[in-house]
Amino acid sequence: MKSAAGGAIGVHGSISLVQYLLEADLLDELRLVTFPVVAGKGRRLFDGDCGPFHFDIADTRSTPNGLNFGIYRRSR
After folding, report:
1. Number of other residues whose CB lies within 10 A of the CB of residue 34
2. Higher-scoring residue by pLDDT: 49, 56
3. 71: pLDDT confidence band, cut at 50, 70 and 90?
4. How far lies 14's CA from each of 3, 11, 36, 63, 64, in Å?
């Protein structure tokens, strides 16, 4: 799919798939939204068994409510 024409492939809400794509070196960009809430429990995108992965910050934005939007491009 990645080599086919047609633009970007987006993944929404699948930690397992994103972890697989990171490990397989198939992710070119991460777009992360962070919320100003600490849950303390739940699944983690970056657990102790993955990485390290190197990214460059491409863009960041914040909302007045504290949401942070970050775009990170894979360093190759």
Report:
1. 11
2. 56
3. very high
4. 21, 7, 21, 24, 27
pLDDT tens-digit series, residues 14-45: 888 888 888 888 888 999 998 888 878 888 88
For residue 34, give the nearest of 8, 9, 63 by alpha carbon.
Answer: 63
* Nearest one of 72, 42, 75 to 59, comparing CA atoms: 72
Rounded Cα distance between 24 and 50, Å, is 11
Please, is 70 exposed, middle or buried when counting C-beta atoms within 10 Å of its C-beta (0-12, 13-18, 19+)? middle
CB atoms within 10 A of CB 46: 13
